[in-house]
Design goal:
Helices cover about 0% and strands about 65% of the residues. The strands form three sheets. It has a six-stranded mixed beta sheet with strand order 5-3-12-7-10-9, with no helix packed on it. The chain has a four-stranded antiparallel beta sheet with strand order 4-6-11-8, with no helix packed on it. Strands 1-2 form a two-stranded antiparallel ribbon. It is mainly β. The N terminus is likely disordered. A hairpin with a 2-residue loop joins strand 1 and strand 2.
Length: about 140
């Protein structure tokens, strides 16, 4: 059972034969004069060990944005990144191509949208993952600019 509490998703009762993905949400890209957030879709799931699945990093913005830069951390004991796709991204300029390290458990990127910018809901990246061990797994947006 997932319980939403203080911007975190908690799981109670982990099954023996599946990997539970827990994504810790953090509001992001918030400016004094604009509201925008980065988050993951789906926000949770159950996956068999050695199965592959995808998580989309999306932005929701009520005001025009032009730039975003972020570092994402993930649990290296239960997850492996198998690839990152920019296909369908709302970002058209990449200052730092999306890159990942399975050793460090990090994903980072920097990109933008020319004027007039972007408003609304849009995909930034699709992160392809593999469940490599039983247990709780997580993705966390660590830094946002």
């Amino acid at each position: 059972m997932w319980i939403f509490k203080k911007n975190q998703l908690f799981y109670q009762g982990l099954g023996l034969f599946c990997l539970m993905l827990m994504i810790i949400l953090r509001p992001g890209l918030t400016k004094a004069d604009a509201t925008a957030s980065l988050y993951f879709i789906p926000t949770s799931g159950s996956y068999q060990v050695n199965s592959e699945f995808s998580v989309r990093l999306v932005v929701q913005s009520d005001a025009s944005i032009n730039l975003t830069e972020s570092t994402i951390n993930f649990s290296t004991d239960t997850l492996t990144v198998t690839g990152i796709s920019k296909t369908g991204s709302c970002l058209s300029l990449w200052f730092s191509e999306p890159q990942y390290s399975n050793n460090d458990g990090t994903i980072s990127f920097s990109g933008g949208i020319p004027n007039p910018g972007f408003t609304g809901l849009g995909r930034i990246l699709t992160i392809n993952l593999k469940a490599k061990a039983k247990g709780a797994a997580w993705l966390k947006i660590r830094s946002i600019s």
